């Protein structure tokens, strides 16, 4: 699609939601408290803000305001109000552009596999594209399961009053994911082109167990206290339940 000479401001609202699922196998019940402490430190609101600032650099956005919150017993949130990195930005549109990250760690005691969901929500208007940050977010987390949905709402107009409901080419979110990442995942797409709705699920092809056993270095794994095949089967069971939205 050719560049459009717009009348004043690009009113298209582009919203992307990325859910990252982290699966941790805990081989001893007494490690539960250490796991919660690990989650609270690794995914604290201050560390989440650092990740959001990197995203702002990627999409060339200006930070206007920062909000952060940690929760008990675990979990955190961080939000940045953003605008285009342009002094001529129209202030009435600033409340439409933001980046949020929320963590949703499981807090059920006496489980084998714990799931921590990390949600990114990026909503922009103007020329900023949230699609630019997908690869960076995926690389930051060694995740086995990822869901992404991208929706464009509203319309913009050119200088002649003609309406445009999309200002870039896209037929799948996969268009914006690099080849090296694609090699590691299987994809499932649902796209409604006329409504500018795009959705994809990403399922890892192979599990690296080192990324899924909590406190792996201290797990005595090499002493055969843990069976690799059994652990992987537990992890796959949890992954498939979420991927297919089924209990079993």
Structure overview:
The N and C termini lie far apart (45 Å). The longest helix is centred in the last third of the chain and has 16 residues, at 228-243. The chain is globular, with a radius of gyration of 20 Å. The chain has helices spanning 32-42, 45-59, 134-140, 179-182, 228-243; strands at residues 13-25, 61-70, 76-84, 98-105, 113-125, 145-153, 156-157, 163-164, 185-192, 197-204. The chain is built from five helices and ten strands. The strands form two sheets. The protein has an eight-stranded antiparallel β-sheet. A two-stranded antiparallel sheet has the order 7-8. A hairpin with a 7-residue loop joins β4 (98-105) and β5 (113-125). It is of the alpha+beta class and 248 residues long. Mean pLDDT is 84; it is low at 89-95.
What number is the mean pLDDT? 84
Multimerization status: single chain
Tally the helices: 5
Point out poorly predicted stretches: 89-95
* Number of beta strands: 10
Spell the H/E element sequence: EHHEEEEHEEEHEEH
Query: Structural class, please?
Result: alpha+beta
Global geometry: globular
How far is the first residue's CA from the last residue's CA?
45 Å
């Amino acid at each position: 699609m050719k560049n459009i000479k717009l009348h004043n401001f690009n009113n298209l609202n582009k919203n992307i939601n990325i859910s990252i699922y982290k699966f941790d196998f805990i081989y001893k019940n007494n490690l539960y408290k250490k796991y919660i402490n690990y989650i609270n430190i690794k995914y604290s609101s201050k560390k989440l803000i650092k990740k959001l600032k990197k995203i702002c650099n990627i999409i060339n956005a200006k930070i206007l305001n920062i909000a952060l919150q940690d929760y008990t017993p675990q979990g955190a949130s961080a939000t940045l109000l953003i605008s285009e990195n342009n002094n001529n930005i129209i202030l009435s549109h600033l409340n439409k552009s933001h980046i949020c990250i929320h963590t949703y760690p499981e807090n059920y005691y006496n489980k084998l596999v714990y799931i921590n969901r990390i949600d990114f929500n990026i909503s922009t208007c103007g020329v900023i594209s949230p699609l630019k940050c997908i690869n960076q977010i995926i690389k930051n987390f060694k995740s086995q399961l990822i869901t992404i949905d991208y929706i464009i709402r509203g319309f913009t107009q050119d200088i002649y009053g003609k309406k445009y409901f999309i200002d870039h080419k896209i037929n799948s979110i996969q268009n914006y994911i690099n080849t090296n990442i694609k090699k590691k995942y299987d994809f499932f797409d649902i796209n409604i082109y006329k409504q500018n709705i795009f959705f994809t699920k990403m399922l890892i092809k192979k599990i690296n167990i080192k990324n899924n056993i909590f406190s792996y270095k201290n797990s005595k794994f090499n002493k055969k206290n843990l069976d690799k095949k059994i652990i992987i089967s537990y992890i796959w069971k949890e992954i498939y339940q979420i991927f297919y939205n089924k209990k079993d």
